[in-house]
Amino acid sequence: MAEVINDTVKSEAISLKHEDSAATELESFQQDNVDQSFANASGGENEKGVQESNSALAQVLPDQPNLKVIRRVINGYVGFANLPKQWHRKSIRRGFNLNLMCVGYKGLGKSTLINTLFNRELYEQDALTQGVQSLDLGDGQSNGKDVSVKKESAENEPSDQTKVKIDTVSAEIEENGVKLQLTVVDAPGFGDSIDNTDSWKPIVDEINRRFDQYLESENKIQRTTLEDNRIHACLYFIEPTGHGLKPLDLEFCKQVHSKCNLIPVIAKSDILTDEEIVAFKNTIRKQLEQANVQLFEPPQYSMLGDDNSANNENIFEKIPFAIVGSTEQVTTDDGRKVRGRAYPWGVIEVDNTKHSDFVYLRDLLIRQYLEELRERTNTVLYEKYRSEKLVGLGIKQDNSVFKNFDPETRQKEEKQLHEVKLAKLEAEMKAVFQQKVEEKEKKLQKSEAELFARHKELKDKLTSQLKALEEKKRQLELSLANQPTSSPVPIKKKGFLR
Fold first, then answer.
1. Which of 84, 144, 146, 360 has the most C-beta neighbours closer than 10 Å?
2. How far is CA 13 from CA 21, 24, 227, 307, 386, in A?
3. Do residues 329 and 201 share a domain?
4. Is the domain of 46 the same as that of 188?
């Protein structure tokens, strides 16, 4: 029992000692602040007097103690570093999708470029007729799956004026265990008519229709199966004229760049020399810049280092891409088997950056920035269309639900809103009062003018009558003056006696 009492006494003594030390530190801290305040006040006292020094003493704040943030490294393994692997497993199981639109004049090699990009014969005529095609890996190894290729047309038939149709080719591709649901949207008939006025409208309507379908799917009660059919990228094929964009090309780019990721390419660039390609690219970039057309620009990530930034700049400098497409295997002079085109003067290699920009286009579209294309479509282009659509329908968002609730701040905001409302009502009442006063003044001025006109009319009438009477009086006086004087006729008196 005595030991317990001794332990209790010791603990109380230790606590009192800690409290005394804390109180001593607090007093010393306050004394230092007061001394510092008096020192600051004494400096001002020499310049402005005792009264100003007292006010300075009252305004000087004590120095705040420095807060130290302790950063600790986790010694044990927690496991959240495994999240990328979890996301990878989920992505592999779910697969990916890419909706690609190809627009350009007829005969520019759109189908050939798509086959070259994915190293598949997506546009083989026999497969389109049969509806089923077996796709192999790019390295020649079969993936062991038959992948269906379906060709569809848009629901709304093209008008006789535009002659532009919308065709869709869908294919499921698998490479190294990764599935890709590819959808290629083509617009045959674009630019083929004599009058190409509004020939871009069916294409813009198709993009908007897909946005509307996705918006309708989002607004459903059950959204477990949300299919993304929005256009993620649009490849616009430019004729290799070497002079510049045509008015139809420029107008199409202006109409489409705000609705999808626009990527211009120079088709069949092997007919141009290197100098002509450089001059042609500069002309196209100037025309697009003057028209305020925004192209898809690869994002830069600081965590990947300077090599990634240099690669992004190199890719962006190559836009518009001068491409050559071919799925045929040709033999070079040194005996290599490559994809390319054989000419009497030599071989053009598709995958050679010195011959074409196909590799840069493939890196931008598939290998490096496919997810960025999808993300920009969802977060920028679709959100802009969705906001404009909902605002056009009269739907407004109440931003007050996102604010932290503070009664005092809420009361101040309501007071300000009430004051603004009262000021608005006062201004409206003043405007109405001023309007009524002006209307009354105009009415009185009109009545006054009518009275003056009536008074003048009556005055003129009386004046004319007075003149007529004076004229009659004068004539009567003249007639009386001109009559001869005669003796008066005796008047016979009436009575009994005559």
1. 360
2. 12, 16, 73, 66, 71
3. yes
4. no
**Same domain as 174, residue 306:** yes
**Is 13 among the domain residues?**
no
Cβ pair 341, 329 in contact under 8 A: no
Q: Which helix (H) or strand (E) holds 9?
A: helix 2-48
On whether both 173 and 24 belong to a single domain, the answer is no
Q: What is the pLDDT of residue 51?
A: 47
Q: Give the confidence band of 409 by pLDDT, cuts at 50, 70, 90.
A: confident
3-class DSSP assignment, residue 329? strand
Q: Identify which of 228, 377, 372 has the alpha carbon closest to the alpha carbon of residue 312.
A: 372
For 302, the token pair is 């600081």
User: Do 175 and 231 fall within a single domain?
Assistant: yes
Q: Which helix (H) or strand (E) holds 145?
A: strand 142-153
Residue 26 located in a structural domain:
yes
Helices (H) and strands (E) in the chain — how many of each? Answer: 13, 11
Q: Could you report the per-residue pLDDT of 245-283, keeping only the tens digit for each?
A: 999 999 999 999 999 999 999 998 888 888 999 999 999
User: Which tens digits make up the pLDDT trace of 142-176?
Assistant: 343 334 455 555 544 544 455 888 999 988 888 88
Q: What is the CATH number of the domain that holds 252?
A: 3.40.50.300
Find the helix or strand (DSSP H, E) in which 151 lies: strand 142-153
Residue that is last in its domain, among 392, 423, 448: 392
- Identity of the amino acid at 125: Q
Coil, strand, or helix at residue 262? strand
Predicted TM-score (pTM) of this structure: 0.61
CA 209/CA 223 separation, integer angstroms? 19
DSSP strands (E only) in 213-371 = 233-238, 262-266, 321-322, 329-331, 337-343, 346-349
User: Cβ contacts of residue 299 below 8 Å, gap of 6+?
Assistant: 312, 369, 372
Specify whether 427 is located in the same domain as 331. no
**What CA–CA distance (Å, rounded) separates 201 from 159?**
11
CA-to-CA separations, 456 to 260, 440, 464, 470, in angstroms, rounded: 78, 24, 12, 21
Q: Which two tokens stand for residue 404?
A: 């932290």
